[in-house]
Amino acid sequence: MNTVTAAPVRAEHPALRPGPAKTWSDTLTLARRNLRHMAREPFEPVIALSMPVLMVLLFGYVFGGVMSPTGDETDYRAMLVPAMIVMVMFYGIAGTASGVARDTSLSVMSRFRTLPMSPAALLWARVLTDMLRAVAEVALLLGVGLLLGWRPESGAAGAAAAVGLLLLFRLSLVCAGVLLGLVMPGPDTASMLVYPLAFPLTMLSTSFVPAQAMPDWLAPVAEWNPVSSVVTATRELFGNPSLPSDSWPAEHAVLLTVGLSLVLIVLVVPPTLRRFARLNR
Amino acid sequence: MTDPDSGRARVQGFDTVGHGDQVRARIGLTGQYASVDELLTGRENLEMFARLHGLTTSAARERAEALLSDFDLAEAADRGSRTYSGGMRRRLDLAVSLLREPDVLFLDEPTTGLDPRSRMQVWETVATLVREGTTVLLTTQYLEEADRLADRVTVVDHGRAVATGTPDDLRARVGGLRLDVLVHDPADLDRTGELLGSALGAAPSVDPPGLRVEVPVTDRVRALMHASHALEGMGSRIADLDVRRPSLDEVFLSLTGHTTAPTETVEAVR
């Protein structure tokens, strides 16, 4: 402590405007930090993952007999598995938003600002971490699905397309979550806001019940709900049975999901970058 | 780097606005509140910030190891930094700001809220860094700290620099030495003041609650001789007699003329 003996590293200063290589290495450094955070405070990912699983167990086993449109409980549970994965993808937005809100409100941010690092790496690291998390979640939930009797009926290509679609959807939500986290006053607000919004949005869809079973004024809301499109598209690509519907969104579910995801990304990225640039000033 | 409200700042010749990256590569910063990642261990913090500074993975590992032992943190290296005491966290923060041996180190009230032992350790570290060629700019509310560490002190009062100089320069501004005489009985204060005033030829100021009479003097030995001669007749009624330099607290009070918000900037330049 009394003498600073560590070898000097003054030598030469690093590349002054961080190039792509430094940005990438900063991104990996920070992504590792995010993964450590997740491992040390796993409450949020665990809740985001377990709630949909519990809901599927509840609907699949408790209400299964009454709810199934075909009368076959196993069919109904197979139908719920894609809905379950979509819900988990959706709830992940809370983790993204609160992670970004925490980073930008934390005193560590003032430290980051004094470093010769690429500021954008903070955002890239968040996107990378949450996409890794999404891949792990999808893998885990497919395992749960197999245990529940769900099977991908469309072969490897169909299953790969379904997973790709889920990840594209998740990417658009991660982008939205980053913006949300930058706008929110703090990490708690971010997660407190997401659940009350996400819960009705996932329930008011064709995830669990066909739109025909709803009152006339509610049915179009559920049919046009983007969550319905994603769930229907996933069922379609996995070759699973869908809840009967002849609405336009249900018939063009894959197209609609890809389109919505891309539109969301295009809409959300510019304000995110503007907002983040202002933060770094 | 934040845009300035007005004016400009240069670090080692580089403008903070135009050449922020050049400046960032040369400075270290430790704020008033330790800005380390609380979910990471001490070692993970150091390695992460070293990587962000542009060190290779192996260089980062070595540097972290060296700083952990320099800063007495080797034992706690693999514990979460949120379990650290205030002093340990401050030391970790200081270690992080020294990862790349900065040319200029900024310390914002580095010892606020620390126990005396940790404060001493921070002081020793700063003194070592300055000896080894780092320029340190630190702010403090403790004038004793400024007196001890700084080559140049700037006194800031309500956002304005009111005086700059070495600690001795600043002392000289409010006059050289002080003769302090303490008595046992408040009734003796006036008599003591009169005797000292005529013996030393200067106006005494009396501090009744402190049972103290104070006279500004210039020569230490002459003052002590004259004073003890003048007070000889009072014998054991005198409790204490001493000549001292004014403290920087007194300097501050006389420079600002009030007691509120003593914020002060210190530069320990080399």
Question: Describe it for me?
Answer:
Chain A: Pfam families: ABC2_membrane. Chain A: One of its GO terms (biological process) is response to antibiotic. Chain A: Residues 43-279 form the ABC transmembrane type-2 domain. The complex is a heterodimer of chains A (281) and B (270). Chain A has helices at 20-40, 43-62, 64-67, 73-105, 108-113, 120-147, 155-183, 187-203, 219-224, 226-238, 248-251, 253-279. Chain A contains twelve helices and no strands. Chain A is 74% helix and 0% strand. With 270 residues, chain B is α+β, with helices and mostly antiparallel strands. Chain B folds into two domains: 10-169, P-loop containing nucleotide triphosphate hydrolases (Rossmann fold, 3-Layer(aba) Sandwich), CATH 3.40.50.300; 177-244, Alpha-Beta Plaits (2-Layer Sandwich), CATH 3.30.70. Chain B has a six-stranded mixed beta sheet. A four-stranded antiparallel beta sheet of chain B has the order 9-10-8-11, with helices on one face. In chain B, strand 4 (104-108), helix 5 (116-131) and strand 5 form a beta-alpha-beta unit. In chain B, helix 2 crosses helix 3 and helix 8 (189-200) packs across helix 9. The relative contact order of chain B is 0.12. The mean pLDDT of chain B is 82. Chains A and B meet through helix 1 and helix 5 of A and helix 1, strand 3, helix 2, helix 3 and helix 5 of B.
From the structure above, extract its key features:
heterodimer, A: 281 residues, mainly alpha, 0% strand, disordered N terminus, B: 270 residues, alpha+beta, 22% strand, elongated
Sheet with the most strands: spatial strand order of chain B: 3-4-5-12-6-7
**Looking at the structure, what is the overall shape of chain B?**
elongated
Q: Which architecture of the largest domain in chain B per CATH?
A: 3-Layer(aba) Sandwich
Please count the helical segments of chain B: 10
Which sequence of SSEs, written as H and E, runs from N to C of chain A? HHHHHHHHHHHH
Counting DSSP H or I runs of 4 or more residues, the number of helices of chain A is 12
Mean pLDDT over the full residue set of chain B: 82
Largest protein interface, residues of each chain: A-B, 40 and 48 residues
**Number of DSSP E strands of chain A:** 0
Classification by helices and strands of chain A: mainly alpha
Low-confidence stretches of chain A: 1-16
Structural class designation of chain B: alpha+beta
**How far apart lie the N and C ends of chain B?**
24 Å
Shape, principal axes of CA atoms of chain A: elongated
* Mean pLDDT figure of chain A: 84
Low-confidence stretches of chain B: none
Assign the CATH superfamily of the largest domain in chain B: P-loop containing nucleotide triphosphate hydrolases
| Secondary structure tally: strands of chain B | 12
- Distance between the amino and carboxyl termini of chain A: 36 Å
